[in-house]
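pinging the channel bc i need a second pair of eyes. not urgent but kinda urgent?? the chain im working w is below, pasted from the shared doc
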Amino acid sequence: MNLHEVRVHPSDENLPREEQLAWKIAEVATDPVEVTPEVTEMVINRMIDNAAVATASITRAPAVAARAQALDHPYAPGSTVFGVDGRFGPEWAAWANGVAVRELDYHDTFLAAEYSHPGDNIPPILAVAQHAGRTGAELVRGIATGYEIQVDLVKAISLHAHKIDHVAHLGPSAAAGIGTLLGLSTETIFQAIGQALHTTTATRQSRKGEISTWKAYAPAFAGKMAVEAVDRAMRGQTSPTPIYEGEDGVIAWLLDGPEARYQVPLPAKGEAKRAILDSYTKEHSAEYQAQAWIDLARKLHNEHPELLDPSAIGRVTIHTSHHTHYVIGSGANDPQKYDPTASRETLDHSIPYIFTVALQDGAWHHVDSYAPERAGRPDTVELWQKVRTVEDPEWTRRYHSTDPAEKAFGGRVEIILTDGSTVTDEIAVADAHPLGARPFARADYVRKFETLADGVVEDAEIARFLALVERLPELDATELPGLTVTARPGLLESIPLPKGLF
């Protein structure tokens, strides 16, 4: 990997575009290096993963509304939308599918200086591939670039420290991935990256307080903006330059300011794009920092039946990283994280709630665990109010470690019972993590898809999709539109479509 120093340059320095980060990213996107077999296999896994969580979401309100917008934009040749037949404008297909993928907070993740769900790159890149008549091999190349750029940006540049939403790294990565897919020039991709970044820098209020349905839309919006940015760049339109390094640019005014310096790792010319292998998916439908805590709570449920009586517990203290404490823990100072009437999106970002339910049930379900009647159960509310998180410097250090053997997203729990006894345990990574107790493999991705698609998609349709996606590198342009699923007859017809402007 090459490290590129990125800093603010006053306008009178006239930083050459070849030295700008957006240009360096575009050069990675145009490098014709071959995709390795391991990366190809993981791309297939993540295509299955995205299809699984999108399928499980297609009857949920945000996905229904986004799909309704796409249905109002039919287009030929166009792109497919999960759940329905037909072809639609690629930007609207990217939008609808992006919302469906993100709605349950159930797909892959990469955490470093910033947070990300790099699987969000797949909907816009796939939509453009279907519309533009590209092959499966070209799609794999585009997705490998999307993951590479997002992961590399996430390793180097923190957005959340300045309350900027993490999708500001997604716009550039998706634009770069689309550029690779289409074989565009470095100049065109450079302009698209600048536009995509410029239009996708938003605040993190979408993940604060009472979290709204926009949480599912935020990455879909970035993907849609990436599609549109590429379209404009292909028509010869230019972007704000330098977008990162300018004296009124992103770094100077939205991030660490005029004196900031970042070291951004990017593959050297001829170096394979392998970043997708650094990412990891979710076994449970919850924010990634909750994954390990669900696994630990399940373990405690089975090993300590005395913990199932909330009146027997005096206090639960979760010692964890800065991020877990301040974003999904009590350190966020969000009273909504303890509110039984809070939205699903809010409960998804409440580790006190998630740990309580997983401890009581010994399981986690993407629908049942968030149901209003589940959140309002008196014994759950009683225990929930006793759970607090604290930052532990050692777990924060491990969270930020660059050593894979040390990196951790969990912590230690201390449960003090009313009889004076104490139960303590700890977990570093989720069971499904590559270094966890049961790392996810192809069979797990397939099982996740089959489980989430049950009752939504007919068995024959599940089998058809799996057989097709597992041949991804061999698919020709006529087969690529098959990389979607159609809901079972009657399922979507019973759901009223909300009407807006279109």
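so Residues 313 and 417 are 4 Å apart (CA to CA). and The first helix runs from residue 21 to 30. — does that match what u expected or am i reading it wrong
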